[in-house]
Every structure is written in structure tokens, then in C-alpha cells.
Specification:
By secondary structure, this protein is α+β, with helices and mostly antiparallel strands. Helices cover 40% and strands 26% of the residues. The strands form 2 sheets. It has a 5-stranded antiparallel beta sheet, with helices on both faces. It folds into 2 domains: 1-65; 69-197. 29% of the residues are buried. It has helices spanning 18-65, 141-145, 151-154, 174-197; strands at residues 2-6, 12-16, 70-74, 85-93, 96-107, 113-121, 127-134. The longest helix has 48 residues, at 18-65.
Amino acid sequence: MLKKNNSDTREEKIVFDKKEIVAVVLKLTSIVAAVVLMLAVVNMFTKDKILQNDHLKTASALNRLFPGKEYEQIEISDVESEENINAIYVMKESGKNVGCCVEVLTSGFSSEKIHLMVGVAAAEYSVVGIEIISSSETPGIGAAVLAKNGEYLRKFENTSKLSIPDIDTISGATITSKAVKSAVLQAVNASAAVLGGAGNG
């Protein structure tokens, strides 16, 4: 506790009890340690679950873009790729490369990343389709751009590197639609580098 000491000069001095200060510090330290330990335990139990969910989302997107095909994830460092590319999967059928699926992380109107998967066929490097793995875009037009099987995403199907720039952005959702457009172009360029370098077989 705090003790008051009155001197002859009428000044009041506060004298701290060192033992009590040490006790308070130790108590606070133990509380912080307990919280840190609790968070570590929670993270230990949830980390594997999160990784498992991410794996399932990725596998599901790959299967929707190239149904029934086998795939092999390659090192991004193996190709000269854009910085937003998160992963590249070579899609195979009977040992032959039939396309690529490219994970791209890009930013829309929201500060959160848009995580999408772009499927690109080996034939002419045309876009097979786009799967949105995760997004936190603002409800409304921005989110509508990323709607599953939505009109905007379907515009990219069967497009190539030359025709992608001709796809118009959406008024009212310019930032998001531009982000998707750029991501698709990056995926096509990376796929061309991978499939061309692999000799398509």
C-alpha cells in the first residue's frame, strides 16, 4: 500500500512499499503469461483445422476447373511469375499437361485480399474459368463482380492473353473488376511460361 510521510517542512512524500510493487508486477506477469499460453493452445488446435479447410477449398476449386484431372504443384521460383501469384498447379491427364491452375492474391475495393484460382488450358492458353476461394469485398456491386457463376467472371471464359484487355470493367466497381482482370492476365502469363517451358507434355 502507499504510505504518507509528513515532514517538518509540511511536504507530503509518497513512500512506495517495494514488496507490494514486486507482488503487483509478478501478478501482472503471471496474468500475461497465462493469456499467452491460452492463445498458444487455441492456435495449436485451430491451425491444423484452418490448413485442412484451405486444402479442401483449393482441391475443390481445382476439380471444378479441371474435373477429374490429376495435378502437381510446382515451385513458383521455377518460372518467372508475377508477385501476386500464390501457387501454380499443373493439371495432367494420362501424364500429359492439359493446363494450369494459378492461385492469385489481389486487392479489390476492400483492404482485404481477393483469393482466386484461374484455370488456363494448354491449348492456346485460354481461360477455362475462375473460382473465388475467398473475398471480403463490400456487399453490392463489388461483391457481385466476384459472384460464383456471375456474368463478369464468365466473360473471361475462353479468352486469351490478347483478348483479356478488351473486357470492360464494371461501372461502380472499377477497382474490383480491374483487380480481377489483372489477376487473370497474370495467371495466363504464368501458365504460358510453365506449359511452354514444359513442352506441354
